[in-house]
Design goal:
The protein has about 210 residues and is mainly alpha-helical. Helices cover about 80% and strands about 0% of the residues.
């Protein structure tokens, strides 16, 4: 089993950008729908009632969708993207604990754990002279060393912000509000943050073909 280990995008990544996006967002959409229509799903598929209430049904389907997306990614793209891979491990562990113990806290804390892990890993990597963000965004763009360093700092802080934000939402609002925030809140926030980094990305972008000719 291999994960992305090269900051140069693979041919599969370049040829299937929409598939890669669908594989990463698909499980989240299934999670949202399953929580919204949990009772309907149980009526259609009575076996799902063994999982528990709507949030537990959504968690079980979320786990299954995550595993399937990783398998498809491995088969079609030839590797497992680092972020979805790590997130998938946490989903399976915390999702299983939630269903087994019938305790929603575990699955609600999953985004906190994942985002905090990424934030600490990115900022910690810089402390050892390693800009790990290149392994995450290898299919999107190539930057010089200073660009990766600055972008890594920003994303590290952003991930820690998301971890804190998730804690605030799940501890103070209803399950439905938390699920909606997880899908429809986190995503726009991340998109806006990503777009805000474009000036930095453009400033520090490098052309691999040009670099190779030097």
């Amino acid at each position: 089993m291999s994960t992305e280990s090269d900051i140069t995008p693979s041919a599969a990544d370049r040829h299937h950008p929409l598939l890669k996006l669908a594989l990463e967002l698909g499980p989240l959409m299934i999670f949202f729908f399953a929580n919204l229509r949990g009772q309907w799903l149980v009526e259609k598929f009575p076996a799902l009632s063994e999982l528990g209430g709507p949030l537990f049904v959504a968690t079980g389907l979320f786990m299954a969708a995550t595993i399937i997306s990783l398998i498809v990614s491995k088969i079609v793209l030839g590797h497992l993207p680092i972020m979805p891979f790590v997130s998938g491990i946490v989903v399976v562990i915390f999702g299983s604990l939630s269903i087994w113990l019938q305790n929603e806290t575990f699955i609600k804390m999953k985004p906190t754990i994942v985002n905090a892990l990424f934030g600490v890993a990115l900022l910690g990597g810089l402390a050892f002279g390693k800009s790990l963000l290149g392994y995450v965004f290898n299919a999107a763009f190539q930057l010089d060393a200073e660009g990766w360093r600055k972008l890594t700092i920003r994303w590290g802080i952003f991930f820690l912000f998301l971890a804190v934000l998730n804690e605030v939402v799940w501890r103070n609002f209803s399950d439905s509000t938390w699920v909606a925030f997880k899908v429809w809140g986190t995503m726009p926030i991340t998109i806006i943050f990503t777009l805000a980094q474009m000036p930095l990305v453009l400033k520090h972008s490098v052309n691999l073909e040009t670099e190779g000719e030097k």
